[in-house]
Amino acid sequence: MNVGFLGLGVMGTPMALNLCRRFPTTVWNRTASKCTALLQAGAELGQTPAKVLEQSDVIFTMMFDGPAIRSVIDDDFRKALRGKTLINTSSVSVEFSQSIEKEVNEAGGKFIEMPVSGSKVPAESGNLVGMMAGDQNECERIRPFVEPITSAAIYCGPIGAGLKTKYAVNVFLITVTAGLAESMNLARAQRLDLEAFSRVLDAGPLASAYSRIKLDKMAKADWSPQAAVKDCYNSTELIRTAAAAAEAETPLIQVCNSLYRQAVNSGLENEDMIAVYRVLSEQ
């Protein structure tokens, strides 16, 4: 069985590398230079997204948003879908995912929704959490292909359920991130010893692998992205839309949406999501 992968960004590259170690893999990215690491690892280069489908049985997409995915779907792509399974791991709207499912099914293929929880570090170690949605039998059939990239792949229900789960999970992630940035900013403003402050947090019950990584990045002013500000802002927009549709109150996400919009408008869109600290510290 051959695997295809479309989209080699911060998340896509380590995911594709883990798949490449287990399966013959063909990759494509809009910026071809980003394929270098995969080619060195033994993957093949697909000249177009449709060519990747032609050479693969199971195809993963990890692209920025719905319009980015839509831009690669042309007539050749649709023709190549017959008999193939397309797995989207990107965060998109439920409506977009449902439209893609319909389009893939009409072309004779199968579609699985599997957004993932985790950033660059768990992607590198194959420890993402997948939220699978779609036909349950097909989800079970393709499990061997998601094992190299996940520590857990949990079936959530029909198409849309995986994304709705991701939105709810990201409320926790984003508010924790903004809270940690605000905590560090208050410590800085009070002229505390930031190393001692970080050690106190690390020794407490709220410490986690995530908090330690983000504290270290703030202390070192290391804004290289593990999950970018623009991705986080996009996530807050998806959550706000989902919350409105469900008539659910999400006041913390409204605040985080405003903070991340400021970060994007300040030119920080390609920095790590913890760079929201800079918005607070520079005000």
Automatic annotation (TrEMBL):
<dbReference type="InterPro" id="IPR015815">
    <property type="entry name" value="HIBADH-related"/>
</dbReference>
<dbReference type="InterPro" id="IPR051265">
    <property type="entry name" value="HIBADH-related_NP60_sf"/>
</dbReference>
<keyword id="KW-0520">NAD</keyword>
<dbReference type="InterPro" id="IPR002204">
    <property type="entry name" value="3-OH-isobutyrate_DH-rel_CS"/>
</dbReference>
<protein>
    <recommendedName>
        <fullName>NAD(P)-binding protein</fullName>
    </recommendedName>
</protein>
<dbReference type="GO" id="GO:0051287">
    <property type="term" value="F:NAD binding"/>
</dbReference>
<feature type="active site">
    <location>
        <position position="166"/>
    </location>
</feature>
<feature type="domain" description="6-phosphogluconate dehydrogenase NADP-binding">
    <location>
        <begin position="2"/>
        <end position="157"/>
    </location>
</feature>
<dbReference type="Pfam" id="PF03446">
    <property type="entry name" value="NAD_binding_2"/>
</dbReference>
<dbReference type="GO" id="GO:0050661">
    <property type="term" value="F:NADP binding"/>
</dbReference>
<dbReference type="InterPro" id="IPR008927">
    <property type="entry name" value="6-PGluconate_DH-like_C_sf"/>
</dbReference>
<keyword id="KW-0560">Oxidoreductase</keyword>
<dbReference type="InterPro" id="IPR013328">
    <property type="entry name" value="6PGD_dom2"/>
</dbReference>
<feature type="domain" description="3-hydroxyisobutyrate dehydrogenase-like NAD-binding">
    <location>
        <begin position="160"/>
        <end position="280"/>
    </location>
</feature>
<dbReference type="InterPro" id="IPR006115">
    <property type="entry name" value="6PGDH_NADP-bd"/>
</dbReference>
<dbReference type="Pfam" id="PF14833">
    <property type="entry name" value="NAD_binding_11"/>
</dbReference>
<comment type="similarity">
    <text>Belongs to the HIBADH-related family. NP60 subfamily.</text>
</comment>
<dbReference type="GO" id="GO:0016491">
    <property type="term" value="F:oxidoreductase activity"/>
</dbReference>
<dbReference type="InterPro" id="IPR029154">
    <property type="entry name" value="HIBADH-like_NADP-bd"/>
</dbReference>
<dbReference type="InterPro" id="IPR036291">
    <property type="entry name" value="NAD(P)-bd_dom_sf"/>
</dbReference>
